[in-house]
Write a structure and sequence with these properties.
The protein has 84 residues and is mainly alpha-helical. It is 70% helix and 0% strand. The chain is built from two helices and no strands. The longest helix is centred in the C-terminal third of the chain and has 37 residues.
C-alpha cells in the first residue's frame, strides 16, 4: 500500500517567473521573428532588410531579452530595499 504521507517527487525546481517576464519574452520572440522575416524579403539593397531588420534584432538581443531575464532580480532588490 502507498504511504499516506508520501510526498510526490519533483525532478525540476519550480520556475519563479512573473507575468511581466513572460510578456517581455513573448514581445521579444515576436520582434525576433518579424526582424528575420524583414531581413529575408526584397532585393539585397532593400532598406528594410539592410537597416531596419538588423536594428530590430539588435534591440531584441541587447534590450528586450536581458530586460526579461533581469526583471525578477530588479523586483526582488526593490522589495528588499523597502523592507530593510
Amino acid at each position: 500500500m502507498a504511504d499516506k504521507h508520501h510526498k510526490p517527487r519533483h525532478f525540476l525546481p519550480p520556475l519563479h517567473i512573473s507575468r511581466t517576464q513572460v510578456a517581455l519574452y513573448a514581445i521579444g520572440a515576436v520582434l525576433l521573428i518579424l526582424g528575420y522575416l524583414l531581413m529575408s524579403i526584397g532585393p539585397w539593397d532593400n532598406p528594410l532588410s539592410r537597416t531596419v531588420a538588423p536594428l530590430m534584432l539588435l534591440v531584441v538581443y541587447l534590450l528586450v531579452f536581458p530586460a526579461a531575464i533581469l526583471w525578477e532580480a530588479r523586483r526582488r532588490k526593490l522589495k528588499s530595499d523597502r523592507e530593510g
